[in-house]
Amino acid sequence: MCSDKLALTGITTPIADFLRCYKEKEFLRCHMPGGKNNPSDITEIFGADSLYESNGIIAESEQNAAALFGGGAVCYSCSGSTLCVQAMLSFIRRQNGCLAQQKIIAGRYSHRSLISSAITMGLEIEWIYPAKYLSASISSKTLEATLRDKAACAVFLTGIDYYGGECDIKAASEICENNNIPLLVDNAHGAYKVFTGNHPINLGARFSADSAHKTLPVLTGGGYLNIKSLSELPEIKKEMALFGTASPSYLILESLDVCNIHIKNEKHKAIKVFNQVCETKSALAELGFAVCESDALRIVINARECGYTGFEMAEKLREKKTECEMCDDSFVILLFSTTTNDYELKRLTEILKNIPIKARLSEKEHTILKPEAVLPPRKAYYKKRKKVAIKSAAGRICAEILAPCPPGVPLVMPGERIDKDCIEELIRYGFKDEIDVIF
Questions:
Q1: CA-to-CA distance for 400 and 434, rounded, in angstroms?
Q2: How many Å from the N-terminal Cα to the C-terminal Cα in the chain?
Q3: Entry pTM
Q4: In the chain, how many domains are there?
Q5: Please, how many CA atoms are within 13 Å of residue 123, restricted to the half-sphere of its CB?
């Protein structure tokens, strides 16, 4: 008989239970994959359900997740938020039909998955620009004015940016509801908000793409597409199948399944982590570090205020066996999860305590790039192209997605005219050689 230890947690874990049973039965594995060492690494064998047509153990696990997030339905993803973004945009595109307006209103701080989706689906994008460089925050007044002046089939916003800035999803959802237009949220960095009551799906978003693996105990590639209405689940599954791998990882699915236990039973631990991260921010500020305002699981330090570039401070941390999530010429970003413990945060404080604070460096001014849109992304991407030296690209029309990763946000996109400000920022982010422009 199979073990039922996980049932004691008060929530079913059907995927993990199935995999454990399969291991205990010691079947001869005459099926994919080629590696036979991990009993959880299987394909869609008998009883294992099928991700895009789920009606068995995967469906049960997804229903558990939906109940925990508080929405109508959840689709698991083995390709992170990228697959979720593709699926929700394709759903909106198909729902509107070929003759309808296929324009998306989006915050300029958007992941490259939005741009690649626009290319493949023929979507046009009307950008809303933030007041601050690479910020997810957008003005409600600007959103209202744009919706009043521009016809569009959806609004697409990013919940949390790489620097820990947040978008007011509640205000945006109210504006979208008043204008009868769906709000789609890229909440890649905010899956942990399942613990806080202000997850986008609870604030009125129609869809929310969440990277579970970024802040929850889930294997890399695990994600959720949260759906407000259960009735849309069958059609969303078709969109997931259109873009997703035909061989989803059961290792990832198992980790999503077991994460439901963490979400249901360990809210108190997650809240404790949020408080400890907040306390660590205060402790570092008292030590003299320029700690920026950021979301609940991120510590952002302005390294220039402490006498270093972000790259230099990251190297100092690396010398002390600490790796940051991201750094640039000004900032160091340290990212935590809902399983981070007190020891790790105290250790970080001790490590930073031993990095001497020096005279501040002058700030690097970043221009909010607003390149002229000459062609729609799809048309530009499939035009004949050639490579030119980046320093000679002024005035040319970009033919590729130029997005440093992290944060994976395109600085210049296909169809936009490259100007001197674009060139300066591209070089600053490591683009030093040639780029593709329209021939």
A1: 11
A2: 66
A3: 0.94
A4: 3
A5: 30
